[in-house]
């Protein structure tokens, strides 16, 4: 069953345009020009219960705007959005009690108070019973390993500890739908990994539907089976991470180490030579021919070592964007 | 060399031009103080029937009532919540933004009001002859009710001023206009009784006298029971009107909210 459905969503911003220089300022005093910036431009997708989806795209692609429309922060310019059967922008309390939006660098914790006070405030705001509160808080603090810092003033916590506490504040009401905008931004690699493990665990334990944006491909690779790629406000790709490789990576790379030098001409008949350094060669081969070419290499050449490699996912996505930009 | 200074000067001028309404307000603010002084000294010959004790009590009470009832959250609403995107966190909570702001502001009012009245109490204790207050219990109770109504009245009004930032790129000009209106018509600077009759006739059709001036003279005991009830009645009407306007503006404004910076 689809829990989030987005149909032809568009969000345009009115942007005040001003000419540079003093003359521009005087001009804008009397006459201001505005233009519509298309942050999200006619996108559609559906998300089922329990899915963990990666939402990727370069800066300014429209990821955050989409998340804001889905969580009810922004009023769409046009199109239909439904989350858990609600229209997000109406921000009915019954809807808000089932969702959460976590933005990497922004905080809802009270800066001068210990994190536990912010959790207690949320307990009241979300009308969570004492039992549920205690149980969820215990689970979350254990999963995130922050038991010791709950009583410490938030301003004294490290970035990683604070991010974990932000997550607890955002999850204390056990949202069914979770929007995570750059949750690992600014964290060191160890902390990034811990957060990833936590997101995975939360998704599995609570059957929560999670939509995650990130600049770190590792986040997406490790967590998401399905990705939605967006650029210039449009969806470029929506599908599994493995089929994106099949769809966009038309070639595989075969790297071979020969026992002795072989002639370049003979190799060129098999595929495009990407690198050739002494006995080491990398040849780019169309995907469907890779096993055939590998077999031929082993048969006809003095091969010492051979590897068939998938191209790096980050490179493929970069290709998708640059092809789209052209 | 000169060009550098000129460039820097022009850059700052651009910034000033950005805030159109402020330019006008700065000009007007300069005019107001001399105007008030002229009005005051015109009335000062006779004190307009006020005794010196009433004037003394008036100014101390204005300070005390102001700290108790006049909230200052409009800047926070406009600049931090709307312009910088702080509203985001509140919009996603199943709790009304209006009441979140109210309780956060009310804490300050209550604490400052307690300080204010504490100080007043000490002054009255040691200098009793300089002060006059309502004497009957009924008048005191009604004055307290007027103060409570005034808290809601000012809060709702200032919240509206704050959320105008949904539409305005330069909200600070408006705040200054409001502050000037309050200084003049809420009685910060001098009792409204000192104004010419035509100004007084006009000003009672605005909500400003019901915010600070009337609560102050109610505590002083200058209003009779009927007048006290009238003040409460008019305050209630203004609160209902403001709440209605707030709701309409809020619904329209949130649609415009673009959460920039979040």
Can you put this structure into words, describing what you see?
The complex is a heterodimer of chains A (326) and B (262). Chain A has helices at residues 21-30, 63-71, 93-96, 115-125, 130-144, 159-171, 189-206, 217-223, 241-248, 264-268, 290-300, 313-325; strands spanning 2-17, 33-48, 52-56, 78-83, 99-103, 177-181, 209-213, 226-231, 234-240, 251-258, 272-277, 280-286, 303-309. By secondary structure, chain A is α/β, with parallel strands linked by helices. In chain A, a hairpin with a 2-residue loop joins β8 and β9. In chain A, α4 runs parallel beside α6 (159-171). The model of chain A has no long low-confidence stretch (mean pLDDT 86). Chain B is mainly alpha-helical and 262 residues long. Chain B has eleven helices and no strands. In chain B, α3 (52-69) packs across α10 (213-220), α7 (137-163) runs antiparallel to α10 and α7 (137-163) runs parallel beside α11. The model of chain B has no long low-confidence stretch (mean pLDDT 85). The interface between A and B is medium-sized, with 30 and 21 residues.
């Amino acid at each position: 069953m689809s829990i989030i459905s987005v149909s032809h969503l568009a969000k345009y911003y009115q942007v005040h345009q001003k000419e540079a220089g003093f003359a521009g300022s005087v001009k804008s005093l009397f006459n201001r020009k505005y233009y519509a910036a298309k942050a999200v431009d006619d996108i559609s997708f559906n998300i089922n219960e329990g899915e963990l989806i990666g939402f990727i795209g370069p800066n300014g692609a429209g990821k955050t705007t989409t998340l804001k429309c889905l969580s009810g922060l922004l009023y769409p310019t046009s199109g239909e959005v439904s989350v858990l059967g609600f229209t997000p922008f109406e921000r009915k309390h019954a809807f808000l009690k089932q969702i959460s939006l976590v933005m990497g660098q922004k905080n809802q914790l009270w800066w001068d108070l210990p994190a536990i006070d912010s959790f207690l405030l949320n307990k009241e705001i979300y009308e969570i019973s004492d039992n549920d509160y205690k149980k969820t808080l215990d689970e979350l603090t254990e999963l995130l390993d922050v038991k010791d810092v709950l009583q410490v003033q938030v301003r004294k916590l490290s970035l990683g500890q604070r991010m974990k506490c932000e997550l607890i504040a955002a999850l204390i009401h056990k949202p069914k739908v979770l929007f995570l905008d750059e949750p690992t931004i600014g964290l060191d690699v160890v902390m990034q990994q811990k957060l990833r493990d936590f997101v995975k665990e939360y998704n599995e334990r609570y059957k929560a539907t999670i939509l995650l944006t990130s600049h770190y491909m590792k986040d997406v690779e490790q967590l998401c089976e399905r990705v939605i790629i967006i650029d210039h406000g449009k969806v470029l790709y929506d599908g599994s991470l493995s089929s994106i490789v099949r769809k966009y990576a038309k070639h595989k790379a075969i790297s071979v180490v020969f026992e002795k030098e072989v002639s370049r001409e003979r190799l060129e008949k098999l595929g495009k030579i990407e690198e050739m350094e002494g006995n080491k060669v990398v040849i780019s081969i169309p995907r469907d021919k890779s096993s055939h070419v590998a077999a031929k290499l082993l048969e006809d050449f003095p091969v010492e070592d051979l590897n068939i490699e998938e191209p790096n996912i980050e490179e493929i996505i970069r290709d998708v964007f640059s092809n789209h930009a052209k | 060399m000169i060009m550098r200074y000129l460039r820097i000067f022009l850059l700052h001028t651009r910034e000033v031009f950005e805030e159109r309404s402020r330019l006008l307000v700065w000009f007007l603010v300069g005019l107001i103080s001399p105007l008030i002084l002229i009005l005051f000294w015109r009335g000062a010959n006779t004190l307009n029937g006020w005794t010196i004790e009433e004037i003394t009590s008036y100014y101390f009470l204005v300070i005390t009532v102001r700290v108790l009832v006049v909230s200052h959250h409009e800047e926070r609403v406009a600049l931090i919540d709307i312009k910088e995107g702080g509203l985001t966190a509140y919009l996603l909570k199943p709790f009304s933004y209006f009441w979140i702001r109210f309780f956060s502001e009310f804490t300050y009012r209550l604490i400052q009001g307690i300080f204010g009245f504490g100080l007043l109490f000490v002054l009255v204790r040691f200098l009793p002859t300089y002060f006059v207050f309502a004497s009957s219990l009924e008048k005191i109770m009604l004055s307290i009710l007027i103060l409570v109504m005034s808290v809601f009245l000012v809060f709702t009004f200032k919240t509206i001023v704050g959320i105008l930032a949904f539409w305005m790129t330069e909200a600070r000009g408006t705040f200054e206009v409001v502050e000037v209106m309050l200084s003049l018509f809420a009685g910060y600077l001098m009792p409204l009784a000192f104004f010419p009759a035509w100004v007084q006739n006009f000003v009672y059709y605005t909500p400003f006298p019901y915010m600070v001036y009337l609560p102050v003279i109610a505590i002083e005991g200058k209003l009779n029971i009927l007048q006290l009830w009238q003040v409460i009645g008019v305050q209630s009407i203004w609160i209902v009107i403001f709440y209605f306007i707030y709701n309409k503006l809020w619904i329209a404004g949130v649609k415009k909210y673009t959460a920039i910076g979040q």
